[in-house]
Amino acid sequence: MNNKKDLASAMNTISHRTSLTQLFTRPLQAVMPALMPQAPAALHAAQPRKLPAALVDRLLEQEGQRGMRHAQLRRATFNAPQPAAHRAATFSYPLHIDRASIEALPAACGVYILRGVNDQALYVGRSVNLRSRVLAHLHNHEEQFLIGQTRRIECRRTAGELGAALLENSLLRDLRPSHNKKQRTKRGLFTLRLNAAGQPQVAQVEEREFSRAENLFGIYTSERAAQEALQKMVERHGLCSIATGMEQAEGFGMACFGRQIRRCRGACTGEESQEQHQQRLMQALEDLRILPWPYAGPMALVEQGDGWQQVHVIDHWRYLGSLDRDNRQLTSRPAASLKGFDLESYKLVIQPYLLGQLELRPLPGLPLAQG
Question: Are residues 65 and 105 located together in one domain of the fold?
């Protein structure tokens, strides 16, 4: 009988799944009764025929590989992500974090603050579901360094997402938490402003001008960014780089570079009138116009949600705080946080304002907390 027939004969003889390793590492006469309980006694006493050494080595190698695969499968099954319900049921809350502050987390919109030793603000975030978001932090193994420093969790509810975004921005400015992305220190803000000839020019202006001055277009953190924005606007709207002051004319009626590549509509060569070009320029700039604060004083931005109402106080596009049934006066804030133009508040409020989605009311006699 050749090796293949010996292997088939050996495999067919094993009616129970006994390890091949056991089969070839123990005397065959000791193993066969267990494998073949119905076999004749004479067969038990017979001397087993030896299989070729090469076949034995091959069988042992296959058995070892099969055992390794089974071990890998067991490890993969053990390490596989468990269902959310299982994780929630078996999760142990960090003992170093105040348990009451975790239990108090509402399944509602608002802002949360992870505080460390001496109540230091480590991280500020917002969510439409505070409880779900904070528990996700606690379950996230990649954030264990932050969680290891946390001692308690503070939450502040808001009536809606706009209030949460405004509050988060103000807390980032006031608290400067160590684990949030640092806000850049402003070295100056730049904008586009029309000169006496009606041409847009890059200008650096003081922050307070953005909420008061007219005919300012766009807000940029560097002169280069403002120049690039102007260049893109000229290209996008087919404007003339000579008429806009971005390129010097080599002679009267000479075409600008944009006209040579059929991008400019010909204000430089007289094919488009200066009046038509200026009208198109103003239309292009209108999308970038900074709207001055249109009211004499602070206004109440009313937001309702979850059965309650908040009044967010806005003045010159800056968020000053919120009033509700529990907080009837604005809390004091660091003086440094109330200086200059708050670009983030402006970006959060201006779009819904222009779309008519905000409910604004006058707010006479604004109550302020003493700082």
Answer: no
DSSP character for 304? E
pLDDT at residue 65, rounded to an integer: 65
Q: Does residue 103 belong to any structural domain of this protein?
A: yes
pLDDT of residue 221: 86
Q: In angstroms, rounded to a whole number, what is the distance separating the alpha carbons of residues 291 and 312? A: 20
pLDDT of residue 14: 45
For residue 17, the model assigns a pLDDT of 47
In a domain, 191, yes or no: no
Q: Hey, what amino acid is at 124? A: V
Residue 63, helix vs strand vs coil: helix
Residues 68 and 114: their CA atoms lie apart, in Å, by: 45
Q: What is the domain count for the chain?
A: 4
Mean pLDDT of 154-160: 94
**Residue finishing a domain among 79, 99, 131:** 79
Give the model's pLDDT for residue 15.
Answer: 45
268, 242 in Cβ contact below 8 A? yes
Mean pLDDT of the chain, nearest integer: 80
Pairing of strands 216-220, 189-194: antiparallel
Residue 105 resides in a domain: yes
State which residues form the domain around 304.
299-362
Structure tokens given for 74: 């067991």
| CA-closest candidate to residue 128, choices 286, 254, 306 | 306
Nearest to 369 by CA among 333, 316, 340, 344: 333
From the list 262, 267, 271, the residue with the least C-alpha distance to 246 is: 267
Identify whether residues 306 and 357 lie together within a single domain.
Answer: yes
Which pair of structure tokens corresponds to residue 8? 């088939």
Return d(Cα 37, Cα 274) in angstroms, integer: 108
| Domain-located, residue 189 | no
- Mean pLDDT over residues 274-303, rounded? 92
Widest pairwise Cα distance in the chain:
120
Q: What is the pTM of this model?
A: 0.66
Q: The domain spanning residue 135 has which CATH number?
A: 3.40.1440.10
- Nearest-angstrom CA–CA distance, 323 and 368: 10
